[in-house]
Amino acid sequence: MVYYIAGEETLPLIPPQKWDGIDTAADGWQSKVVPFSVEALDDSNKMVGEKFAEECVRYAGSFEGCGCGFRASVFIDEDAGPPGDHELAGRSSREHLHQYVLKHRVSSLYVCWSGDEAQPAKNIAILDPNRIIDFTFAFEERCLYRIAEDLDRVLEPSD
Q1: DSSP one-letter code for 102
Q2: How far is CA 108 from CA 1, 11, 28, 157, in A?
Q3: Which residues contact 42 (CB under 8 A, 6 or more apart)?
Q4: If phi over 0 gives left and psi between -120 and 50 gives alpha, with beta otherwise, what is residue 120?
Q5: How far apart are CA 23 and CA 75, in angstroms?
Q6: 43-65 burial, b if ≥16 CB within 10 A, otherwise e?
Q7: Which domain, by its residues, includes 96?
Q8: Per residue in 111-121, pLDDT tens?
């Protein structure tokens, strides 16, 4: 899964995880990884920019480098006990994504499988940014989310 974010202003870059020296079998590994990254588009994914009306489109990565880590926090089994390291790392990635969306006024987000960037969106939805940190919320594949700045205004019928 890959995630793309867009905004009217230039979205600052955050370097991705370098996996040298990270042992995911070791205790506490999730505190040593970069929980969130933002990268410029390259030749392999630049076509996704056509889905956005905004000027600046970026690739957003989780602790795994790709977007799969944003989904790691979703598969909650209440009977399984406390969350494991992978789930905690996923939650941290989503918390960082949420903070970034709010701080940098990200206005759209698109989710698809790597290689599907040129495929048409299956859905367009309004996204309350607080759903990003609702760990029961799963992002829909090939959905273009419009980030709601003011849900009351967005959801009220127009006159």
Answers
A1: H
A2: 17, 12, 33, 21
A3: none
A4: beta
A5: 23
A6: eebeebbebbebebbbbbbbbbb
A7: 2-155
A8: 999 999 999 99
Both structure tokens of 50? 């056509």
What's the pLDDT at 153?
Answer: 42
Distance CA 100, CA 36 (A): 9
Q: Which stretch of DSSP H or E encloses residue 86?
A: helix 85-103
Residues with Cβ < 8 Å from 50, sequence gap 6 or more? none
Count of domains observed in the chain: 1
| Number of CB atoms found within 10 A of residue 69's CB | 27
| 89 neighbors 63 (Cβ within 8 angstroms) | yes
Condensed to tens digits (0 to 9), the pLDDT of residues 54-97 reads 999 999 999 888 898 898 776 556 666 777 777 888 899 999 99
Return the structure tokens found at 79.
């009977």
Residue at 98: amino acid letter: H
Q: Are strands 143-147 and 123-127 parallel, antiparallel or unpaired?
A: parallel
Which residue, among 27, 101, 5, 14, has the nearest Cα to 63 in the 3D structure? 14
